[in-house]
Write a structure and sequence with these properties.
This protein has 207 residues and is an all-alpha fold. It contains nine helices and two strands, in the order αβααααβαααα.
């Protein structure tokens, strides 16, 4: 990412929630992943991290967290490496959904995203942007790896942490960023505790 680009959401641009809603105002029968990428082209990594993380907060069928978690892993790795723009394989960009399905999902997310956006503002920004970007990308990658685990009820907390981190990074809001790190620590603790419990249970059964 460009270290001199100080915000994913420059002053005067539409909020992410607004852009996502407007994308659904189409007469097309289907909306492709490429359509979403095009609509978010000026916002790059932060907006996509928020979108795919927010989808994991919805009540979706089992296995959906893995599907939406894979793009989070790809985005986090690309941020860490320093890609200027997100890259996705062509077959993934061609994937699409019915426009009504898209509108239904965004309608559930809009109020949550809008609330986060209204509360975020530049404050308590103590470190260079490039440093924060690298740290956020590492934490987002770790959280993404937890999100893709096909285990019910543990995906929402790491997904929420990524949303908070991405908004904090985009708005240069140290308060949201710090909250995101705290939520990430909680998610990591739950994952480690769950892993330890499974390991002990396995030792008890097979030991």
């Amino acid at each position: 990412m460009d270290s001199e680009h100080s915000s994913e959401f420059p002053a005067g641009t539409k909020r992410l929630s607004t852009v996502l809603v407007e994308l659904g105002n189409t007469t097309a029968e289907r909306i492709s992943f490429d359509d979403i990428l095009t609509a978010l082209s000026e916002r790059s990594f932060g907006a996509l991290l928020i979108l795919f993380s927010a989808l994991n907060l919805l009540p979706l069928p089992p296995g959906s967290s893995t599907i939406f978690g894979i793009p989070l892993v790809l985005l986090s790795i690309q941020m860490l490496i320093g890609f200027e723009n997100p890259w996705f394989p062509a077959f993934l960009r061609r994937k699409s959904m019915r426009t009504e399905t898209y509108r239904s999902g965004i309608a559930k997310l809009e109020s949550v995203l809008a609330r986060f956006e209204r509360l975020a503002r530049p404050r308590y920004w103590l470190f260079p942007q490039i440093v924060v970007e690298r740290v956020v990308s590492i934490v987002a990658l770790l959280m993404s790896l937890i999100v893709i685990l096909p285990i019910p009820l543990i995906n929402q907390i790491p997904a929420l942490s990524i949303i908070l981190l991405a908004i904090g990074l985009g708005e240069q809001d140290g308060a949201w960023l710090g909250t995101g790190f705290l939520v990430a620590a909680l998610a990591a603790g739950i994952a480690i505790g769950l892993g330890a419990s499974v390991g002990l249970a396995a030792l008890h059964i097979f030991g």
